[in-house]
Amino acid sequence: MNPLKHVAIIMDGNGRWGLKNKKSRNAGHKEGLNTVEKIIKTSIKNKIKYLTLYAFSTENWKRPKKEINFLFDLLENFLVNRIDELHEKNIKLKIIGVKNFSTKLNKLLNYSEKKTIKNTKLQINLALNYGSKFELINAFKSLNKNKENINEKNLSKYLQTNNIPDPDLLIRTGNTKRLSNFLLWQLAYSEIFFEKKLWPEFSEKDYNRIIKKFKNIKRNYGNI
Description:
- This protein is α/β, with parallel strands linked by helices.
- It is built from seven helices and six strands.
- Strands 3-4-2-1-5-6 form a six-stranded parallel beta sheet.
- Strand 3 (91-96), helix 4 and strand 4 form a beta-alpha-beta unit.
- Helix 1 (14-22) crosses helix 2 (25-45), helix 2 (25-45) runs parallel beside helix 3 (65-88) and helix 3 (65-88) runs parallel beside helix 4 (103-116).
- The longest helix has 24 residues, at 65-88.
- It is globular.
């Protein structure tokens, strides 16, 4: 049985689900938040220590402004109303990405990280305004600035996932088979599962099924 410490998820399909079922992309984003809560609970039940969620990429700024504003309002409301609950459940929140949002949201993100920093049951890495190519370029710039040798160990310490183990498992919902500039370095040896279901349709049963399959995969890491 493979140990499972870190799961990364590309939560794809919210907008499509919203248009299909509610004639509104925003309704899909709202429904997707319910799935996030279910996956957090199931991760804890499976004793997973790290859960990385791709919430907003550097490319997502191309979306309509109304949709972007709705997404950030949804995040603000979630943090205001649920951060105390996450803290009580011993859950740590860490943001990966560049925090260049509104002053209000930046303060709220910083407050949430600081409040939960010592929690140990589950660490949720929320990828916001995150792009892996940008992350890697900055890491190489830091290596050059500090005149350090280019090797895996030195590069890894300048990534935004420093001190976080690489994902064992990546799940992408939404019937799309690509990585979309997400954790390109960190996913080098992750097992990848592409799911047809849109994110709001993804259930605890689906998650547990993938976890079970992962635990029984023979992982060779280049060996035979």
